[in-house]
């Protein structure tokens, strides 16, 4: 292990303890033996223990878990900073830079002095740009004055959408595999997640029958969280498939829909039939009768590689948008002014062709990863992902692990220094989630490592 600066020690130890509390074995590169970081915590630097204080934490926290993707990312970054060479396919973050127009707008906003609070819902220029974009590409019309709320990343927008509708004792339908934050946000609202397993045979898409059976059996369901395209499966509901769900929902008018469409610009051409492009992945709100009950979530993180700008939004009918605005006004006031200026440039100055080129690059990476995985032992591949930048292979047949995907990922990290996220954190036990939004070179190294790991198991 490389020498550390003295002040980095407490941070590293904190991280290692966090990693260990999650069950991550922390190891010493030199000896390759499991390493107990608690042995290294100097008492002076240790945080106050709970026995020394009478402060009670919010009981809701006992039902909320730390984001595992964020934890893995933190651990990987720390290991890398410490000189350990780690290959990571754990983060949902494109490896390219935001488009030049976005970078220029960011600089310009600084020199123009756009450095103040904006309206809670965002600058009018950004709301107008969002409304125009949704109208042009998705054929759905929102009033920029009352129906769009810009937040600090889509994650915040999702959470505020959940809070706007759900409270104590309510139920929320979440198809599995799911984005891990959904059930935790529901728990934070005091509500209960009703998880329904979408099957691998349907490409991990919820069927209308499953939706009806679940709504019938759970009359307290107030919200349906639909991720399209999906993180972690890459599954995409076409217009026909969404229409099947909408038809069921028309019989349950008390159920709101949170349509998380943050990956909607990353959709690959369907291989089956001649589906027109506007039907590949339409906005749920554009389906007949669905506008009034849908909160559409979108943002700049994925399509424009603007993850650090923290820019997302909710587009919803005025009553729901107002509820979200009230929450946001007390939680964070508004998104960053510089980010908002950059967001306007993203939506108004970046030609569609640039984003389409990124989709083609991403599709080549997907195809490479799928080809490599198909050659590996013990890997069961689902139908090819049709959107986003994830693949969720099943490795439950791998010997030794008996389907324990967490142990699998821990040993993979320990032996090969390859970081993936265990499927069980996405409600997909026995699977591993691979994010292929990185360079082809990194993917090649990662696939070699995974192949070696699996081959050595046999
Ligand atoms: C399904 C889904 N929704 C929302 C988000 C949040 O995106 P951000 O907060 O970066 O805008 C993510 C990020 O990984 C995601 O995968």
TrEMBL record:
Its cofactor is pyridoxal 5'-phosphate. One of its GO terms (molecular function) is glutamate-prephenate aminotransferase activity. Belongs to the class-I pyridoxal-phosphate-dependent aminotransferase family. The keyword Signal applies. It comes from Seminavis robusta. Residues 1-23 form the signal peptide. Residues 85-450 form the Aminotransferase class I/classII large domain. Keywords: Aminotransferase, Pyridoxal phosphate, Signal, Transferase. PROSITE patterns: AA_TRANSFER_CLASS_1 (PS00105). GO terms for biological process: amino acid metabolic process. This is Bifunctional aspartate aminotransferase and glutamate/aspartate-prephenate aminotransferase.
């Amino acid at each position: 292990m490389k020498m550390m600066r003295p002040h980095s020690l407490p941070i590293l130890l904190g991280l290692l303890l966090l990693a260990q509390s999650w069950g991550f074995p922390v190891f010493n590169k030199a000896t390759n033996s499991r390493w107990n970081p608690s042995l290294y915590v100097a008492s002076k630097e240790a945080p106050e223990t709970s026995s020394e204080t009478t402060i009670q934490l919010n009981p809701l926290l006992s039902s909320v878990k730390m984001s595992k993707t964020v934890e893995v990312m933190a651990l990987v970054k720390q290991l890398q900073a410490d000189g350990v060479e780690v290959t990571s396919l754990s983060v949902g973050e494109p490896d390219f830079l935001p488009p030049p127009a976005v970078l220029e707008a960011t600089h310009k906003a600084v020199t123009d002095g756009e450095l103040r609070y904006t309206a809670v819902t965002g600058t009018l220029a950004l709301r107008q740009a969002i409304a125009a974009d949704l109208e042009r590409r998705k054929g759905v019309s929102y009033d920029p004055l009352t129906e769009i709320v810009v937040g600090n990343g889509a994650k915040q927008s999702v959470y505020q959408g959940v809070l706007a509708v759900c409270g104590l004792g309510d139920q929320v339908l979440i198809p599995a595999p799911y984005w891990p934050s959904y059930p935790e946000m529901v728990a934070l609202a005091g509500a209960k997640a009703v998880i329904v397993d979408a099957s691998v045979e349907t490409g991990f898409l919820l069927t209308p029958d499953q939706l009806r059976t679940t709504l019938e059996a759970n009359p307290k369901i107030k919200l349906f969280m639909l991720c399209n395209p999906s993180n972690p499966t890459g599954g995409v509901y076409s217009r026909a498939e969404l229409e099947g769900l909408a038809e069921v929902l028309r019989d349950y008018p008390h159920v709101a829909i949170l349509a998380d469409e943050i990956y909607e610009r990353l959709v690959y051409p369907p291989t089956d039939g001649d589906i027109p492009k506007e039907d590949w992945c339409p906005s749920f709100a554009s389906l007949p009768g669905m506008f009034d009950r849908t909160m559409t979530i979108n943002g700049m993180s994925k399509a424009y590689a603007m993850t650090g700008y923290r820019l997302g939004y909710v587009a919803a009918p005025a009553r729901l948008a107002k509820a979200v605005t009230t929450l946001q006004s007390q939680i964070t006031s508004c998104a960053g002014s510089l980010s908002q200026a950059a967001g306007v440039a993203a939506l108004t100055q970046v030609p569609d062709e640039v984003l389409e080129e990124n989709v083609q690059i991403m599709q080549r990476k997907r195809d490479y990863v799928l080809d490599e995985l198909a050659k590996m032992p013990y890997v069961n591949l689902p139908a090819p992902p049709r959107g986003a930048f994830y693949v969720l292979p099943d490795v439950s047949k791998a010997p030794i692990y008996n389907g324990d995907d967490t142990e699998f990922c821990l040993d993979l990290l320990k032996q090969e220094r390859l970081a993936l996220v265990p499927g069980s954190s996405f409600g997909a036990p026995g699977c591993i989630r691979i994010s292929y939004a990185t360079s082809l070179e990194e993917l090649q190294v990662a696939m070699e490592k995974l192949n070696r790991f699996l081959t050595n198991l046999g």
